[in-house]
Amino acid sequence: MMPIEVELKFPLGTDTPTPDQMAEQLVTLGGVAKPVRKQDDHYYAHPVRDFAETDEALRIRADNGAARLTFKGPRLDEVAKTRQESETEVGSAEVAAEILLALGFSPVRIVSKLRRPFELQWNGLEVEAVIDDVVGLGVFVELEAMHDGDDHERIRDQLLSLADTLGLRHSERRSYLCLLLAQPST
């Protein structure tokens, strides 16, 4: 079985902590700050099926000189972004892109962000909390945990508890890609 990713995303705005306040709160809760990363997520469309209809995603993530190919399956939860996820390192983002293009996949959009990651334990759960500054969208906080079982509701509820403790509101289930694609063209 593919690992399951349980993720909650929250925009930061006028009624939430600032990014620096959020970072301080995460550290206060025992979070360990990791190096800031620049990530460019290159999303692709399948040649014969519409990922928007099947609620799937395929991307190549260029991340501080490394590259990963990721497939995300359909959502399994009505509250969180809970989905199966398969990911592997690739030697070159450019070569991986050439292979996808040769197979008929087409580029959709690049999502660029600066990511401030934190690792923390919350009620026995390993959580990655990130503060993302997404080009064209603004700043968000993502709370994420991975697991191999079928207890994603319990994990989702633990992440919701953490979000409440952090003062996060207005969970956003859409991906950064969907949010960017929903913006009017300029």
Question: Which SSEs are present, and which pair or pack?
Answer:
Elements: E1 4-11, H1 19-28, E2 32-33, E3 37-45, H2 51-54, E4 57-63, E5 66-75, E6 81-90, H3 93-102, E7 106-122, E8 125-134, E9 138-147, H4 152-166, H5 176-181
Antiparallel strand pairs: 1-6, 1-9, 2-7, 3-4, 3-7, 4-5, 5-6, 7-8, 8-9
Can you describe what's shown?
With 186 residues, the chain is α+β, with helices and mostly antiparallel strands. It is 24% helix and 45% strand. It contains five helices and nine strands. The protein has an eight-stranded antiparallel barrel with strand order 1-6-5-4-3-7-8-9. A hairpin with a 5-residue loop joins strand 5 (66-75) and strand 6 (81-90). The longest helix is centred in the C-terminal third of the chain and has 15 residues, at 152-166. It is globular. It starts with a strand and ends in a 5-residue tail after the last helix.
